[in-house]
Protein: Hydrolase
Amino acid sequence: MKSRIFMYLFIFSVLLIIFQYVNSKNIIDKYEVDIRKYKTTMDAQEKTIAALEEQNFELNYFNIDRNDNALDYFIAQGYDADKLISAITEGLYNMNDYEGEEHPIVPFVSMTDSKLLINKIRILNHRWIVANFTDGVHWGEIFVTYEIDENNDLKYKLVEYFMYPKFN
Structure:
């Protein structure tokens, strides 16, 4: 009788070990599949991130924040580059606060009830600015040069401009 109990226990133990082995193998196989999927996803995301970083670099190429030569020019002239860049931007945006129909630098008159406003500014280097403007319906862009006179006043000069045609 004891031998039968040991035999049943032995068979039960072997079955339990086989069950544990199969179950563990299935779990490990599932983890391996999940890891492969995760690695594939990570590789794709790393490629996407690299492409976005390259695109970001290209988009910011003509930007004073990335132009060491322009920043060095300001520093060599004795200016705090960050404060000067802020003053240049604020100077153009402050032109949006004007009376009458004519904007101080945008050579168009609004064709709506709204005023023409400079909307977005990009300082390209230590001399050039590109900005867009709108009256809410019509859009255009201006190319402006700037300089600092002997009194440390910013002077803006409109060089080129255009307004997009309205296609409606």
Summary: The longest strand covers residues 139-148. The beta strands are 117-123, 128-134, 139-148, 154-163. The chain has a mean pLDDT of 92. The helical segments are 2-59, 68-76, 81-94.
